[in-house]
Design goal:
The structure holds two protein chains of two kinds. In chain A, 32% of the residues lie in helices and 24% in strands. By secondary structure, chain A is α+β, with helices and mostly antiparallel strands. Chain A has three domains: 5-54, Uridine Diphospho-n-acetylenolpyruvylglucosamine Reductase, domain 2 (2-Layer Sandwich); 59-174, Uridine Diphospho-n-acetylenolpyruvylglucosamine Reductase, domain 3 (2-Layer Sandwich), CATH 3.30.465.10; 182-287, 2-Layer Sandwich (Enolase-like, domain 1), CATH 3.30.390. In chain A, a hairpin with a 2-residue loop joins β12 (198-207) and β13 (210-219). The termini of chain A are far apart. In chain A, 49% of the residues are buried. The model of chain A has no long low-confidence stretch (mean pLDDT 95). Chain B has a five-stranded mixed sheet with strand order 2-1-5-3-4, covered by helices on one side. In chain B, β3 (51-54) and β4 (57-60) form a beta hairpin. In chain B, α2 (88-95) packs across α3 and α2 crosses α5 (141-159). The termini of chain B are far apart. The chains are: A alpha+beta, B alpha+beta. Chains A and B meet through α2, β3 and α5 of A and β4, α3 and α4 of B.
């Protein structure tokens, strides 16, 4: 269903409940967060919503808070600029802050929101691997009420999430990271501000030379972020050495499912991603004082 | 024309108008308010020629819907000069010959203006980072960066 500009309904509700009801009342309505993706697609005539439900007047979606258990809950309408400077994020949770800092450029970081970014889910975007590495949970509201699911399940495939029609992302929740863990986000892009050719999100903690916690997710190298709990478990509890680092990089590279696109060939991604993993964990070990 | 009632404060002046839901802020500024400084380049948020400030922060005019900006304060390149005097970055751009075809200049000025309000003695890398969302198709970046440094130097000297 297409609609010309003057026929499109525009709503700016003040609660999530109203937003869900408005979306449910019009099959052709779309949710407007920061606009950085949806309006670009409207300008390119790729989508023509019959109605727009703006989330910009819903105060509760703009907050970030630290919960009593150390989790950090970030509202869906938090701008990348805010997440890039979020002092609530601690230890390994900082992987999300590092990712936010590398999204696009200043004017886009002033507009774009975490909810909008993950609901659209460009697999080359920066938040998805960071959220998967941080064991984040995505909070969702819809016609059937509220639900929450791990980020690793939320990202389903190319531009596809677990959101059902009429549902909106309301927040992401990052559990507390292990004490003294650190979070790194390495991004390779053709030029500053581009989407990633490949990215690596890493949360790691070490006791001396010994890895006490490890989470690695590779982005932009397949339909969803790639994370392998088996190899993480294999390396945890052991001294980090070159053999272990090589094995992590090789096993992850084998699990990638990249495509050829305008940014790079699939072959290039298979070559560069393991090098990025190697560099990230080597740098992390050096920062933690347990360099191999 | 029927539409949604919106009130904006544009370059300090309150403007009330009715807009269609899908009208972008860039279209409103250029076609309704005759402020043609901000340019339509890619219309995809990539090139930065449409950059304006919304509540003091640079955003893409082409990706902002006017209906969603109700109550906001907008500053365009036309609003950077004060009392007829060019702002520091405008003067520095002129003095540095940092303009070739000029199409990117309004967006560059708005991004640089916002950056210089917060940056002290910025390095070249910091300037490049701040302006990475503004493309100059003439590739005249060097003089633009020179101009931002010149503006920062002049502001620092004036303050000391």
């Amino acid at each position: 269903m297409t609609a010309s500009g003057s026929e499109v309904a525009f709503h700016r509700p003040s609660t999530v409940g109203e937003a869900v009801a408005l979306l449910g009342g019009d099959d052709g309505a779309m949710c407007l967060a920061g606009g950085a993706t949806l309006v670009a697609m409207m300008n390119a005539a790729l989508v023509a919503p019959s109605g727009l439900v703006s989330l910009s007047a819903i105060e509760s979606l703009r907050d970030a808070e630290r919960l009593s258990d150390g989790s950090v809950r970030i509202g869906a309408m938090r701008r990348h600029r805010e997440t890039a400077a979020d002092a609530l994020l601690e230890d390994g949770q900082c992987v999300l802050r590092e990712a936010a800092r590398q999204i696009a450029n200043m004017p886009v970081r002033n507009m774009g929101t975490i909810g909008g970014s993950i609901a659209f889910f460009d697999p080359a975007a920066d938040y998805p691997p960071a959220l998967v590495a941080a064991d984040a949970v995505v909070e969702i509201s819809g016609p059937d009420g509220e639900r929450a699911m791990p980020a690793a399940k939320f990202f389903v495939g190319w531009y596809e999430t677990a959101l059902a029609p009429g549902e909106i992302v309301t927040a992401v929740r990052l559990p507390p990271a292990p004490a003294d863990s650190i979070g790194l986000f390495y991004k390779l892009a053709r030029v500053s501000g581009d989407f990633a050719t490949a990215s690596v999100a890493l949360v790691v903690a070490m006791d001396g030379q010994t890895v006490t916690y490890l989470a690695v997710a590779v982005g932009a190298c397949g339909p969803t972020p790639v994370r392998l709990p088996e190899i993480e478990a294999e390396l945890t509890g052991k001294a980090l050495d070159d053999t272990g680092i090589d094995r992590l990089a090789v096993v992850l590279a084998e699990a990638l499912d990249p495509i050829d696109d305008v940014r790079a060939s699939a072959d290039y991604r298979r070559l560069v991603a393991p090098r990025m993993v190697r560099r990230a964990i080597t740098d992390a070990a050096a920062r933690l004082g347990g360099a191999s | 024309m029927s539409g949604l009632p919106v009130t904006l404060t544009v370059n300090g002046r309150e403007r009330a108008l009715d807009v269609p839901a899908t009208q972008t802020l860039l279209e409103t500024l250029r076609e309704r308010l005759a402020l043609t400084g901000a340019k339509r380049g890619c219309n995809q948020g990539v090139c930065g020629a449409c950059t304006v400030m919304l509540d003091g922060k640079p955003v893409r005019g082409c990706l902002s819907l006017t209906a969603n900006c109700d109550g906001a304060e907008i500053t365009t390149v036309e609003g950077l000069a004060e009392g007829g005097a060019l702002s520091g970055i405008q003067q520095a751009m002129a003095d540095s010959n940092a303009v070739q075809c000029g199409f990117c200049t309004p967006g560059m000025l708005v991004s640089a203006f916002a950056f210089l309000r917060e940056a002290e003695a910025p390095s070249v890398a910091e300037i490049q980072n701040a302006l990475s969302g503004n493309l100059c198709r003439c590739s005249g970046y060097r003089k633009i960066i020179d101009a931002v440094r010149l503006a920062a130097d002049r502001a620092a000297r004036a303050a000391s």
